[in-house]
Amino acid sequence: MITFRPARARGHFNHGWLDTYHSFSFAEYLDPRYMGYRTLRVINEDKVAPRAGFPTHGHRDMEIVTYILEGALAHKDSTGSAGTIRPGDVQRMSAGTGVQHSEFNAVDEVTHLLQIWILPSERGIEPSYEEKHFPESERRGRLRVIAAPDGREGAVTIRQDALIYASLLGPGDQVTHRLEAGRGAWLQLAKGVLDLQGHQMNPGDGAAIEDLAEFTMRGGNPESGQPAEFLLFDLA
């Protein structure tokens, strides 16, 4: 069974410096029907104005993954970690017992990103930070694992039985994903047009996938030639 979450149904706030869409309840947006999916708690699509950003604030007991679509985001946190991530980079911060951090758009253009929160399998761990680069060549035409509990294939390490894949599918490209019994998947389309089991998805659309042994994604709009860029979450 596939349950689609259209982009237009998400929570939306434009704060001037931040234009943000919430797939699940977050901050001022509350919808009891959408409090998350399995251990996936937050997917925010953020567009941050040039040289603006999030001032220092705190988190605890959450796995926070940031995926950059356009622009660059500068990060500093209380663990002493700092860096600037760009398209192809994935950042993981385990908030654990508590961490303070700030994030700012580091360029003179809008920075477009997906921020993901996943509930950890264990509370009260020591905070930590990690970032990895995944070239477009590794994501094109395939599902490239970018986050995993065991850090497989060079993925960032998250403290939960969850896998996150990134993919770019051009016109005619397709991939099939197999789900183990009892697991579910969430697909979040960031750019382009994607066909999921015969249903067209547009940018910002999401989908929960249950009770399917496998499903196929076919990408690309032949007219525009733009690839479909998306994240796929495989969750216990």
What is the domain tally? Answer: 1
C-alpha-based Rg, rounded: 17 Å
- Sheet-strand content, in percent, reads over 45%
Name of the level-1 CATH class? Mainly Beta
CATH topology: Jelly Rolls
Order of helices and strands: EEEEEEEEEEEEHEEEEEEEEEE
Number of helices: 1
Q: How much helicity do the residues have?
A: under 10%
How would you describe this structure in keywords?
seven-stranded mixed beta sheet; Jelly Rolls; 236 residues; 22 strands; 1 helix; mainly beta; seven-stranded antiparallel beta sheet; 2% helix; single chain
Topology:
Elements: E1 2-5, E2 11-14, E3 18-22, E4 40-48, E5 53-59, E6 63-70, E7 73-77, E8 82-85, E9 89-94, E10 99-105, E11 111-118, E12 128-133, H1 136-139, E13 144-148, E14 156-157, E15 162-169, E16 174-178, E17 184-191, E18 194-196, E19 199-201, E20 206-209, E21 214-219, E22 228-235
Parallel strand pairs: 13-14
Antiparallel strand pairs: 1-20, 2-3, 3-4, 4-11, 5-10, 6-9, 6-11, 7-8, 7-10, 9-12, 13-15, 15-22, 16-21, 17-20, 17-22, 18-19, 18-21
